[in-house]
Amino acid sequence: MKNLKFITSLVLTALLTFTSCQDEIDNENGQNPNTNNSESETASNLERSSMYDGSFDDFLDGTSCSSILLPVIATVNGTQVSIITQSDYQTVLNILGQFSNDNDTVTLKFPLSVKLSNYTEVVVTNQSEYDAIVNACETLEAEGKGAISCIDIDFPITIFTYSVNLEQTGSVVIQSEQQLYTYINNMDNTELFAVNYPITAKLSDNTSVTITSDLDLQTKINTCLGIEDKEAEAENNAKNLETILVNGAFKVQSFINAGANKASDYANYTIDFANNYTCTAVNGAISTVQGTYSVTSETEVYLNLTFSGNATFSLLNSTWEVTSFSNSSISLKSTTNAAVTLVLSQI
What number of other Cβ atoms are within 10 A of residue 68's Cβ? Predict the structure, then answer.
C-alpha cells in the first residue's frame, strides 16, 4: 500500500479513464460487435459494472466508491467501537438504529486504509484526505460515472479482439471482475473488441438473467439502475415518514376491514410513536395499549405495527404498504389483502 497523495486526482483518474479522449476516435455504440473500443458505451458498461463495489459498508464510511480495510476504530454516536471483522458491523448498525430521529455520527480514527473502486489500496492519514475521496465519489456519481453495482456478471466470459482493420486478432478469457476492470481500463484506444454472447449475470435481487448482446446489456443496466433509483427514493421517504411519526400524535381516521369501516372502535385512542420504535395507544385514563413499529423500504415504503394485549388493536398488526403520506395523514394498505386499508391522521 502506498501513502495517499493527490487523492482527488487518483480517484478521478480511476473512475474517468473511460470518459477521456472522446475527440480522438469515434464513439461507437457497440451495435456492430467489431466496433467496440475503449470509448464505447459497452466498454463503459463493462468497466463500471466491474469496478470494486464498496457499498457494503456505506453506513460506516459514507461512500460507495471505496471500503475501509479492517481493522479500524470508529466512534459511533459517542461510543468507541473496534471493528476487527465484518461481524462487528452489527455493533455499529445496532448503535445507529437505536433511535429513529437522532443525528447519527461516525468518526473514524486515522490512519486507516481503504480500497478504491480501481482495486487500489491506499493509506489515509487524516480527515481531509478522506473527505477528498468522498467528495470525488459524490461528484462522479452525480455525473452518472460511478460504479454500477446492481448487476454482477458471471465469470468466465470471453472477449474477442480485433485490429483496426476489423480482423480478429485473438481472444481473452476473463475470470473475475477485477480482471475485467483491468482489461478494459488498460485497453489501447486503437484496439477493438467484442463480447462473446450470451453471458449471464445476477441482479441485485439475486435474479439470474441472460444477456445476448451489447444492446441487451445496456437495457438490463438501465432497468436495474431505475430500480436502484426507486429504492433510494423509498429509503429517503422512509426516513421522512419516521420523522413525521415521532413528531406527531395520531388517531385512526379510517380502517376498512372486510368491507366495513372499523374506525369507531379506535375513536377515543391517541397513538404516539416514540423514537425508540415503541408506540402507545392511549384512551385517556381508561386503557393503554403497548406496541412496537418499524419503517422499512424496498422500492416502496412499509410500516410494520405490532400491538399486544388488546384484541381490537391486534387487528392492526401487519406490515402495511405506505400508499401516501404527508405531515397530516398516512394512508396504508395491507400487503396481504389490498382491500384492507388504514388511514392515520395527525391530531
Answer: 20
